[in-house]
Protein backbone atom coordinates (compact mmCIF):
# COMPACT_ATOMS: atom_id res chain seq x y z
CA UNK A 1 0.00 0.00 0.00
CA UNK A 2 1.14 3.54 -0.76
CA UNK A 3 0.58 5.45 2.45
CA UNK A 4 0.89 9.10 3.46
CA UNK A 5 2.05 9.42 7.08
CA UNK A 6 4.24 11.49 9.39
CA UNK A 7 7.69 10.70 10.69
CA UNK A 8 8.44 11.46 14.37
CA UNK A 9 8.95 15.18 14.89
CA UNK A 10 7.60 16.09 11.44
CA UNK A 11 6.23 19.57 10.81
CA UNK A 12 2.49 20.09 11.23
CA UNK A 13 0.30 20.35 8.13
CA UNK A 14 1.00 19.16 4.59
CA UNK A 15 4.71 20.04 4.85
CA UNK A 16 5.26 17.24 7.34
CA UNK A 17 3.74 14.40 5.31
CA UNK A 18 5.96 11.67 3.84
CA UNK A 19 5.21 8.81 1.44
CA UNK A 20 5.69 5.17 2.45
CA UNK A 21 5.37 1.75 0.86
CA UNK A 22 3.68 -0.61 3.34
CA UNK A 23 3.57 -4.31 2.35
CA UNK A 24 1.02 -6.93 3.38
CA UNK A 25 3.81 -8.99 4.97
CA UNK A 26 7.03 -7.95 6.64
CA UNK A 27 10.19 -8.31 4.56
CA UNK A 28 13.69 -8.81 5.91
CA UNK A 29 15.88 -5.87 4.84
CA UNK A 30 19.01 -7.98 4.34
CA UNK A 31 17.80 -11.29 2.90
CA UNK A 32 14.55 -10.09 1.34
CA UNK A 33 12.75 -13.05 2.91
CA UNK A 34 9.00 -12.68 3.40
CA UNK A 35 8.00 -12.97 7.05
CA UNK A 36 4.96 -12.58 9.27
CA UNK A 37 1.88 -10.52 8.47
CA UNK A 38 2.45 -6.79 8.74
CA UNK A 39 0.24 -4.65 10.94
CA UNK A 40 -2.23 -4.01 8.11
CA UNK A 41 -5.87 -5.00 8.61
CA UNK A 42 -9.08 -4.48 6.67
CA UNK A 43 -11.72 -3.30 9.13
CA UNK A 44 -14.67 -3.19 6.73
CA UNK A 45 -15.71 -3.47 3.09
CA UNK A 46 -17.43 -0.30 1.89
CA UNK A 47 -21.01 -0.61 0.60
CA UNK A 48 -20.98 1.86 -2.29
CA UNK A 49 -23.58 3.43 -4.56
CA UNK A 50 -21.93 1.89 -7.62
CA UNK A 51 -18.68 0.41 -8.97
CA UNK A 52 -19.45 -2.85 -7.19
CA UNK A 53 -17.01 -4.66 -9.46
CA UNK A 54 -14.19 -2.74 -7.79
CA UNK A 55 -14.41 -3.40 -4.03
CA UNK A 56 -12.96 -0.77 -1.73
CA UNK A 57 -12.30 -1.00 1.98
CA UNK A 58 -11.22 0.76 5.14
CA UNK A 59 -7.67 -0.19 6.13
CA UNK A 60 -6.13 0.19 9.58
CA UNK A 61 -2.38 0.35 10.11
CA UNK A 62 -1.23 -0.67 13.59
CA UNK A 63 2.49 -1.13 14.29
CA UNK A 64 2.95 -1.59 10.54
CA UNK A 65 6.40 -1.44 8.95
CA UNK A 66 7.04 0.40 5.71
CA UNK A 67 9.73 1.99 3.58
CA UNK A 68 10.13 5.69 2.99
CA UNK A 69 9.75 6.66 -0.67
CA UNK A 70 11.62 9.74 -1.83
CA UNK A 71 12.44 12.69 0.41
CA UNK A 72 11.00 13.04 3.93
CA UNK A 73 8.20 15.62 4.21
CA UNK A 74 7.71 15.64 0.44
CA UNK A 75 5.06 12.93 0.37
CA UNK A 76 2.33 14.96 -1.32
CA UNK A 77 4.70 16.10 -4.07
CA UNK A 78 5.79 12.52 -4.75
CA UNK A 79 2.23 11.25 -4.66
CA UNK A 80 1.09 13.65 -7.36
CA UNK A 81 3.54 12.15 -9.86
CA UNK A 82 1.21 9.15 -10.17
CA UNK A 83 -2.03 10.79 -9.03
CA UNK A 84 -2.01 12.91 -12.21
CA UNK A 85 -1.88 9.72 -14.27
CA UNK A 86 -4.82 8.39 -12.27
CA UNK A 87 -6.72 11.60 -12.98
CA UNK A 88 -6.42 11.06 -16.72
CA UNK A 89 -7.59 7.49 -16.13
CA UNK A 90 -10.63 8.81 -14.29
CA UNK A 91 -11.35 11.09 -17.25
CA UNK A 92 -11.36 7.96 -19.39
CA UNK A 93 -14.01 6.56 -17.03
CA UNK A 94 -16.20 9.58 -17.84
CA UNK A 95 -15.72 9.04 -21.57
CA UNK A 96 -16.42 5.31 -21.25
CA UNK A 97 -19.66 6.00 -19.38
CA UNK A 98 -20.73 8.45 -22.08
CA UNK A 99 -20.04 5.86 -24.79
CA UNK A 100 -21.88 3.09 -22.96
CA UNK A 101 -24.82 5.39 -22.23
CA UNK A 102 -24.94 6.44 -25.90
CA UNK A 103 -24.92 2.86 -27.16
CA UNK A 104 -27.75 1.83 -24.81
CA UNK A 105 -29.77 4.94 -25.70
CA UNK A 106 -29.29 4.71 -29.46
CA UNK A 107 -30.57 1.14 -29.72
CA UNK A 108 -33.56 1.93 -27.55
CA UNK A 109 -34.48 5.17 -29.33
CA UNK A 110 -34.41 3.45 -32.72
CA UNK A 111 -36.77 0.73 -31.52
CA UNK A 112 -39.11 2.54 -29.12
CA UNK A 113 -42.14 4.04 -30.89
CA UNK A 114 -44.30 6.89 -29.67
CA UNK A 115 -46.41 9.53 -31.46
CA UNK A 116 -45.80 10.93 -34.90
CA UNK A 117 -43.14 13.51 -35.65
CA UNK A 118 -44.65 17.00 -35.62
CA UNK A 119 -43.43 17.57 -39.18
CA UNK A 120 -45.30 14.49 -40.40
CA UNK A 121 -45.02 10.70 -40.23
CA UNK A 122 -41.47 9.43 -40.72
CA UNK A 123 -42.42 5.74 -40.75
CA UNK A 124 -45.97 5.64 -42.16
CA UNK A 125 -46.13 1.85 -42.26
CA UNK A 126 -45.51 1.59 -38.50
CA UNK A 127 -48.03 2.27 -35.73
CA UNK A 128 -45.92 5.27 -34.61
CA UNK A 129 -42.57 6.86 -35.36
CA UNK A 130 -39.43 5.75 -33.53
CA UNK A 131 -38.59 8.32 -30.87
CA UNK A 132 -35.25 9.07 -32.54
CA UNK A 133 -37.24 11.27 -34.93
CA UNK A 134 -38.26 13.66 -32.12
CA UNK A 135 -36.00 16.72 -31.60
CA UNK A 136 -35.83 16.38 -27.80
CA UNK A 137 -34.61 12.79 -28.09
CA UNK A 138 -32.12 13.68 -30.82
CA UNK A 139 -30.72 16.41 -28.58
CA UNK A 140 -30.03 13.85 -25.85
CA UNK A 141 -28.44 11.37 -28.26
CA UNK A 142 -26.26 13.99 -29.95
CA UNK A 143 -25.11 15.29 -26.57
CA UNK A 144 -24.01 11.78 -25.61
CA UNK A 145 -22.30 11.25 -28.98
CA UNK A 146 -20.52 14.62 -28.79
CA UNK A 147 -19.21 13.91 -25.30
CA UNK A 148 -18.14 10.32 -26.06
CA UNK A 149 -16.33 10.99 -29.33
CA UNK A 150 -15.03 14.45 -28.44
CA UNK A 151 -13.90 13.28 -25.01
CA UNK A 152 -12.08 10.36 -26.60
CA UNK A 153 -10.18 12.82 -28.79
CA UNK A 154 -9.27 14.91 -25.73
CA UNK A 155 -7.89 11.84 -23.96
CA UNK A 156 -5.94 10.78 -27.06
CA UNK A 157 -4.25 14.19 -27.15
CA UNK A 158 -2.98 13.71 -23.59
CA UNK A 159 -1.88 10.14 -24.35
CA UNK A 160 0.07 11.41 -27.33
CA UNK A 161 1.70 14.12 -25.21
CA UNK A 162 2.66 11.51 -22.61
CA UNK A 163 4.34 9.43 -25.35
CA UNK A 164 6.22 12.47 -26.60
CA UNK A 165 7.37 13.31 -23.09
CA UNK A 166 8.64 9.74 -22.65
CA UNK A 167 10.55 10.00 -25.95
CA UNK A 168 12.05 13.35 -24.91
CA UNK A 169 13.18 11.97 -21.56
CA UNK A 170 14.65 8.92 -23.26
CA UNK A 171 16.55 11.18 -25.68
CA UNK A 172 17.86 13.31 -22.79
CA UNK A 173 15.99 16.41 -23.96
CA UNK A 174 15.05 17.72 -20.52
CA UNK A 175 13.78 21.06 -21.81
CA UNK A 176 11.31 19.45 -24.20
CA UNK A 177 10.18 16.96 -21.57
CA UNK A 178 9.58 19.78 -19.08
CA UNK A 179 7.56 21.78 -21.64
CA UNK A 180 5.34 18.80 -22.45
CA UNK A 181 4.93 17.98 -18.76
CA UNK A 182 3.70 21.53 -18.12
CA UNK A 183 1.25 21.20 -20.99
CA UNK A 184 -0.06 17.93 -19.56
CA UNK A 185 -0.35 19.51 -16.12
CA UNK A 186 -2.60 22.22 -17.57
CA UNK A 187 -4.82 19.84 -19.53
CA UNK A 188 -5.22 17.18 -16.82
CA UNK A 189 -7.66 19.04 -14.51
CA UNK A 190 -9.75 20.03 -17.55
CA UNK A 191 -9.98 16.42 -18.67
CA UNK A 192 -10.59 15.03 -15.22
CA UNK A 193 -13.05 17.71 -14.11
CA UNK A 194 -14.96 18.33 -17.32
CA UNK A 195 -15.12 14.82 -18.80
CA UNK A 196 -16.32 13.23 -15.57
CA UNK A 197 -19.07 15.86 -15.23
CA UNK A 198 -19.95 15.41 -18.91
CA UNK A 199 -19.90 11.62 -18.59
CA UNK A 200 -22.25 11.93 -15.64
CA UNK A 201 -24.61 14.04 -17.77
CA UNK A 202 -24.50 11.51 -20.62
CA UNK A 203 -25.36 8.69 -18.22
CA UNK A 204 -28.24 10.69 -16.78
CA UNK A 205 -29.52 11.34 -20.31
CA UNK A 206 -29.61 7.59 -20.94
CA UNK A 207 -32.04 7.18 -18.05
CA UNK A 208 -34.08 10.06 -19.47
CA UNK A 209 -34.10 8.59 -22.97
CA UNK A 210 -35.52 5.34 -21.63
CA UNK A 211 -38.18 7.20 -19.67
CA UNK A 212 -39.56 5.23 -16.71
CA UNK A 213 -37.82 2.10 -18.03
CA UNK A 214 -34.48 3.78 -17.33
CA UNK A 215 -35.19 3.64 -13.61
CA UNK A 216 -35.49 -0.15 -13.71
CA UNK A 217 -32.30 -2.10 -13.05
CA UNK A 218 -33.02 -4.74 -15.70
CA UNK A 219 -32.46 -2.15 -18.45
CA UNK A 220 -28.92 -1.47 -17.17
CA UNK A 221 -28.71 2.28 -17.82
CA UNK A 222 -29.15 3.20 -14.15
CA UNK A 223 -25.98 1.23 -13.43
CA UNK A 224 -24.03 3.44 -15.83
CA UNK A 225 -25.01 6.48 -13.79
CA UNK A 226 -24.25 4.81 -10.44
CA UNK A 227 -20.84 3.67 -11.68
CA UNK A 228 -19.78 7.00 -13.19
CA UNK A 229 -20.99 9.14 -10.29
CA UNK A 230 -17.79 8.39 -8.37
CA UNK A 231 -15.63 9.68 -11.24
CA UNK A 232 -16.36 13.30 -10.30
CA UNK A 233 -15.12 12.48 -6.77
CA UNK A 234 -12.18 10.10 -7.24
CA UNK A 235 -8.66 11.58 -7.39
CA UNK A 236 -9.96 14.99 -6.34
CA UNK A 237 -13.48 16.33 -6.75
CA UNK A 238 -14.47 18.62 -9.61
CA UNK A 239 -14.11 21.55 -7.22
CA UNK A 240 -10.55 20.50 -6.35
CA UNK A 241 -9.70 20.11 -10.04
CA UNK A 242 -11.06 23.60 -10.68
CA UNK A 243 -8.93 25.10 -7.90
CA UNK A 244 -5.91 23.21 -9.23
CA UNK A 245 -6.50 24.53 -12.75
CA UNK A 246 -7.18 28.17 -11.95
CA UNK A 247 -5.15 28.54 -8.78
CA UNK A 248 -2.03 26.40 -9.23
CA UNK A 249 -1.77 25.85 -12.98
CA UNK A 250 -2.79 29.33 -14.17
CA UNK A 251 -2.42 31.98 -11.46
CA UNK A 252 0.71 30.65 -9.75
CA UNK A 253 2.42 30.41 -13.15
CA UNK A 254 1.52 34.02 -13.94
CA UNK A 255 -1.04 33.08 -16.64
CA UNK A 256 1.59 31.49 -18.91
CA UNK A 257 -0.27 28.16 -19.44
CA UNK A 258 -3.54 29.80 -20.51
CA UNK A 259 -1.68 32.16 -22.83
CA UNK A 260 0.04 29.21 -24.51
CA UNK A 261 -3.15 27.17 -24.72
CA UNK A 262 -5.20 30.00 -26.25
CA UNK A 263 -2.38 30.69 -28.70
CA UNK A 264 -2.62 27.04 -29.79
CA UNK A 265 -6.39 27.41 -30.22
CA UNK A 266 -5.88 30.49 -32.38
CA UNK A 267 -3.34 28.53 -34.42
CA UNK A 268 -5.96 25.81 -34.97
CA UNK A 269 -8.52 28.36 -36.16
CA UNK A 270 -6.30 30.50 -38.37
CA UNK A 271 -6.12 28.28 -41.49
CA UNK A 272 -9.87 27.59 -41.31
CA UNK A 273 -11.12 31.18 -41.01
CA UNK A 274 -11.47 31.56 -44.77
CA UNK A 275 -12.36 27.99 -45.67
CA UNK A 276 -14.60 27.47 -48.68
CA UNK A 277 -16.85 25.38 -46.41
CA UNK A 278 -19.23 27.87 -44.83
CA UNK A 279 -19.98 25.79 -41.73
CA UNK A 280 -16.33 25.09 -41.03
CA UNK A 281 -15.48 28.75 -41.53
CA UNK A 282 -18.26 29.92 -39.19
CA UNK A 283 -17.25 27.52 -36.45
CA UNK A 284 -13.59 28.48 -36.74
CA UNK A 285 -14.53 32.13 -36.14
CA UNK A 286 -16.66 31.07 -33.17
CA UNK A 287 -13.82 29.13 -31.57
CA UNK A 288 -11.42 31.99 -32.20
CA UNK A 289 -13.74 34.34 -30.32
CA UNK A 290 -14.03 31.92 -27.42
CA UNK A 291 -10.24 31.51 -27.24
CA UNK A 292 -9.79 35.27 -27.00
CA UNK A 293 -12.58 35.54 -24.44
CA UNK A 294 -11.16 32.71 -22.30
CA UNK A 295 -7.86 34.53 -22.02
CA UNK A 296 -9.59 37.83 -21.26
CA UNK A 297 -11.72 36.21 -18.56
CA UNK A 298 -8.54 34.89 -16.96
CA UNK A 299 -7.11 38.41 -16.82
CA UNK A 300 -10.32 39.74 -15.27
CA UNK A 301 -10.33 37.07 -12.56
CA UNK A 302 -6.64 37.69 -11.87
CA UNK A 303 -7.30 41.41 -11.38
CA UNK A 304 -10.15 40.72 -8.95
CA UNK A 305 -8.16 38.06 -7.09
CA UNK A 306 -5.39 40.61 -6.51
CA UNK A 307 -7.65 42.27 -3.92
CA UNK A 308 -9.66 39.22 -2.79
CA UNK A 309 -8.28 35.71 -3.34
CA UNK A 310 -11.71 34.18 -2.75
CA UNK A 311 -12.46 35.17 -6.35
CA UNK A 312 -10.33 32.23 -7.49
CA UNK A 313 -12.37 29.71 -5.50
CA UNK A 314 -15.71 31.33 -6.32
CA UNK A 315 -15.14 31.35 -10.08
CA UNK A 316 -13.01 28.22 -10.49
CA UNK A 317 -15.71 25.62 -11.30
CA UNK A 318 -17.33 27.85 -13.93
CA UNK A 319 -13.84 28.57 -15.27
CA UNK A 320 -13.08 24.85 -15.60
CA UNK A 321 -16.40 24.07 -17.28
CA UNK A 322 -15.98 27.02 -19.65
CA UNK A 323 -12.56 25.69 -20.60
CA UNK A 324 -13.95 22.19 -20.96
CA UNK A 325 -16.60 23.22 -23.48
CA UNK A 326 -14.10 25.31 -25.46
CA UNK A 327 -11.61 22.43 -25.52
CA UNK A 328 -14.34 19.98 -26.56
CA UNK A 329 -15.37 22.35 -29.37
CA UNK A 330 -11.74 22.66 -30.48
CA UNK A 331 -11.44 18.89 -30.86
CA UNK A 332 -14.68 18.76 -32.81
CA UNK A 333 -13.46 21.55 -35.10
CA UNK A 334 -10.29 19.55 -35.73
CA UNK A 335 -12.34 16.43 -36.50
CA UNK A 336 -14.66 18.39 -38.76
CA UNK A 337 -11.72 19.83 -40.71
CA UNK A 338 -10.30 16.33 -41.18
CA UNK A 339 -13.70 15.03 -42.31
CA UNK A 340 -14.12 17.88 -44.81
CA UNK A 341 -10.68 17.16 -46.29
CA UNK A 342 -11.42 13.45 -46.60
CA UNK A 343 -14.84 14.10 -48.08
CA UNK A 344 -13.41 16.57 -50.60
CA UNK A 345 -10.84 14.01 -51.73
CA UNK A 346 -13.74 11.89 -52.99
CA UNK A 347 -12.16 8.63 -51.92
CA UNK A 348 -13.93 5.80 -50.12
CA UNK A 349 -17.29 4.11 -50.23
CA UNK A 350 -20.65 5.69 -49.52
CA UNK A 351 -20.47 4.43 -45.94
CA UNK A 352 -17.21 6.33 -45.40
CA UNK A 353 -18.76 9.52 -46.77
CA UNK A 354 -21.71 9.07 -44.42
CA UNK A 355 -19.21 8.70 -41.55
CA UNK A 356 -17.58 12.03 -42.48
CA UNK A 357 -20.98 13.69 -42.87
CA UNK A 358 -21.89 12.55 -39.37
CA UNK A 359 -18.71 14.14 -38.00
CA UNK A 360 -19.61 17.46 -39.64
CA UNK A 361 -23.20 17.26 -38.35
CA UNK A 362 -22.07 16.48 -34.81
CA UNK A 363 -19.56 19.33 -34.87
CA UNK A 364 -22.36 21.70 -35.89
CA UNK A 365 -24.43 20.41 -32.95
CA UNK A 366 -21.56 21.01 -30.51
CA UNK A 367 -21.15 24.61 -31.64
CA UNK A 368 -24.90 25.31 -31.81
CA UNK A 369 -26.07 23.52 -28.66
CA UNK A 370 -23.19 22.81 -26.27
CA UNK A 371 -20.69 25.64 -26.73
CA UNK A 372 -23.36 28.27 -25.88
CA UNK A 373 -23.32 26.89 -22.35
CA UNK A 374 -20.19 28.98 -21.91
CA UNK A 375 -22.47 32.05 -21.78
CA UNK A 376 -23.95 30.99 -18.43
CA UNK A 377 -20.53 29.95 -17.10
CA UNK A 378 -19.11 33.35 -18.06
CA UNK A 379 -21.93 35.20 -16.33
CA UNK A 380 -21.60 33.04 -13.22
CA UNK A 381 -17.82 33.33 -12.90
CA UNK A 382 -18.04 37.13 -13.08
CA UNK A 383 -21.06 37.48 -10.78
CA UNK A 384 -20.52 39.46 -7.55
CA UNK A 385 -18.74 37.32 -4.97
CA UNK A 386 -20.98 38.75 -2.24
CA UNK A 387 -23.87 36.55 -3.43
CA UNK A 388 -21.77 33.54 -2.39
CA UNK A 389 -19.84 34.80 0.64
CA UNK A 390 -22.03 37.41 2.34
CA UNK A 391 -24.44 35.12 4.22
CA UNK A 392 -23.59 34.30 7.82
CA UNK A 393 -23.08 30.51 8.25
CA UNK A 394 -25.67 30.58 11.04
CA UNK A 395 -28.28 31.87 8.60
CA UNK A 396 -28.16 28.96 6.14
CA UNK A 397 -30.98 27.35 8.11
CA UNK A 398 -33.09 28.38 11.06
CA UNK A 399 -34.53 24.95 11.91
CA UNK A 400 -31.62 22.51 11.74
CA UNK A 401 -27.81 22.41 11.87
CA UNK A 402 -27.91 25.24 14.39
Characterise this structure.
The chain is mainly alpha-helical. It is 61% helix and 8% strand. It is built from eleven helices and seven strands. It has a three-stranded antiparallel β-sheet, covered by helices on one side. A two-stranded antiparallel ribbon has the order 3-4. A hairpin with a 6-residue loop joins strand 3 (25-27) and strand 4 (34-37). Helix 3 (174-210) packs antiparallel against helix 4 (221-228) and helix 3 packs antiparallel against helix 5 (238-251). The protein is globular. The protein starts with a strand and ends in a 13-residue tail after the last helix.
Global shape: globular
Contiguous uncertain segments of 5+ residues: none
Biggest beta sheet attributes: 3 strands, antiparallel
Query: What count of helical segments does DSSP give?
Result: 11
Record the strand order, biggest sheet.
1-2-7
Strand segment tally: 7
Strand content: 5-15%
Rg: 25 Å
Relative helix content: 55-70%
Order of helices and strands, N to C? Answer: EEEEEEEHHHHHHHHHHH
Overall SS class: mainly alpha
Arithmetic mean pLDDT: 94
Distance between the termini: 40 Å
Task: For this entry, give a set of tags.
two-stranded antiparallel sheet; 61% helix; 8% strand; 11 helices; 402 residues; mainly alpha; globular; three-stranded antiparallel β-sheet
List the helices and strands and how they pair.
Layout: E1 2-6, E2 17-21, E3 25-27, E4 34-37, E5 40-45, E6 57-61, E7 67-69, H1 75-111, H2 135-170, H3 174-210, H4 221-228, H5 238-251, H6 256-269, H7 278-305, H8 310-345, H9 350-370, H10 373-381, H11 386-389
Antiparallel strand pairs: 1-2, 2-7, 3-4, 5-6
Helix pairs in contact: 1-2, 1-3, 1-4, 2-3, 2-8, 2-9, 3-4, 3-5, 3-8, 5-8, 6-7, 7-8, 8-9, 8-10
Amino acid sequence: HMLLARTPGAKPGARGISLFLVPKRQVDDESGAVGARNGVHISRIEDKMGCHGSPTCQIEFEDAEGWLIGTPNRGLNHMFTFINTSRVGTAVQGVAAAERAFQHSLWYCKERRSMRALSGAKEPSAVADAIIHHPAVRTMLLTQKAIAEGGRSMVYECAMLADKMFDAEKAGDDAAAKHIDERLAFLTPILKGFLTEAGKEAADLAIQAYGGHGFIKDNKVEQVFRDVRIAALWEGTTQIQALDLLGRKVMLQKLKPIAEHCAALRGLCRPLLFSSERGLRTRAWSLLGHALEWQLLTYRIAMRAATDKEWIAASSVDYLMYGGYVTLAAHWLRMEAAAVRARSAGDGAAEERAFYDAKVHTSAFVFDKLLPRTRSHKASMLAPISSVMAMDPAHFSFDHAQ
